[in-house]
Amino acid sequence: MSKLDETQQMLKDLTDANGIPGNERQSREVMKKYIAPFADSVETDNLGSLIAKKEGLADGPKVMVAGHLDEVGFMISQIDDKGFLRFQTVGGWWNQVMLAQRVTITTRSGKEITGVIGSKPPHILSPEARKKPVEIKDMFIDIGASSREEAKEWGVTPGDMVTPYFEFTVMNNDKLLMAKAWDNRIGCAIAIDVLKGLKGVDHPNVVYGVGTVQEEVGLRGAKTATAFIQPDIGFAVDVGIAGDTPGVTSKESNSKMGDGPQILLFDASMVSHRGLRELVIDTAEESGIPYQFETIAGGGTDAGSIHLTANGVPALAIGVATRYIHSHAGILNRDDYENAVKLIIEVIKKLDRDTVTKITFD
After folding, report:
1. Catalytic residues, which ones?
2. Separation CA 256–CA 242 (nearest Å)
3. pLDDT tens track for 204-214
4. Which of 109, 182, 193, 239 is the most exposed place for a label (fewest CB within 10 A)?
5. What is the DSSP string of 150-181?
6. Cα angle at 242 between 262 and 185, to 5 degrees?
7. How far is 29 from 184, CA to CA, in rounded Å?
8. At residue 166, does pLDDT exceed 90?
9. Per-residue CA distances from 156 to 28, 44, 118, 163, 271 (Å)
């Protein structure tokens, strides 16, 4: 791999970090390292969400820009007498993307052990069995241990985090980046770069760049982080589904990598706030920033929790179209990421008290 530029290195550091829901320390430390130079203060709430504050106008509206620190993964549930590991999924997985994939087990001491999700070879499967997907409950992880005792000697214990093993890759088209955990380290990167882009810039509000925890298991960290901040406006920045691969119909997704950030109209957790949505669209048009609309019948983003906090918070989810989410390797287009940052910065510059009041009560 040729030398990475500054942005690629940040994205590599973020995606290389391992962090399933409830175990986000690694990704939080990476985000803190990159966002702290552009923040007036960095705190965490009691669940572990990172909250970086950047003050423009001290008594201006509070604007929250949240990516989530966690990725889908697994948790060790038991070790059998032969040293094979049984596991629980943490976040949504499809069984057909799991078998024979490498994983990393992070022990309590921080030691990382490589394993593989085991499968039977086809030679011993009946023709009927070959046609059936293996159920997740029948899968196991092989770390090369010969017994339960040996696995324990290596520090492996039930409750340990398991994450996909994958190397950050700049593809032949260097706009396309492939990595694990784009869902949602790309949102964390956007929050970092929004604060970076506001350095030395006047803005009529107080901006919070947030890395939330436990999004993949029910938008949980966003609940506590939003209660901590009490924002006037909330943005969730996340991946969205790219519908530009074979087999995805236009009814399922119209989004294409490279066509700009996605403005999520609705999902299972939220109907987007009309006033905020219209401000974002108008800003994109004025600034010549490409964008696309997306709707997702299932699933949700942290905006689903943000908008229900206290008396309600006008909120919107902005996405980066990503291929193969909730698998070992996703692909996204760097232009979409950079345009999402530009768009959010331009919107933040407009969010003074009068504009927020108009959005909220119009």
Report:
1. 215
2. 5
3. 999 999 999 99
4. 109
5. HHHHTT--TT-EEEE----EE-SSTTEEEES-
6. 70
7. 15
8. yes
9. 23, 28, 17, 14, 43
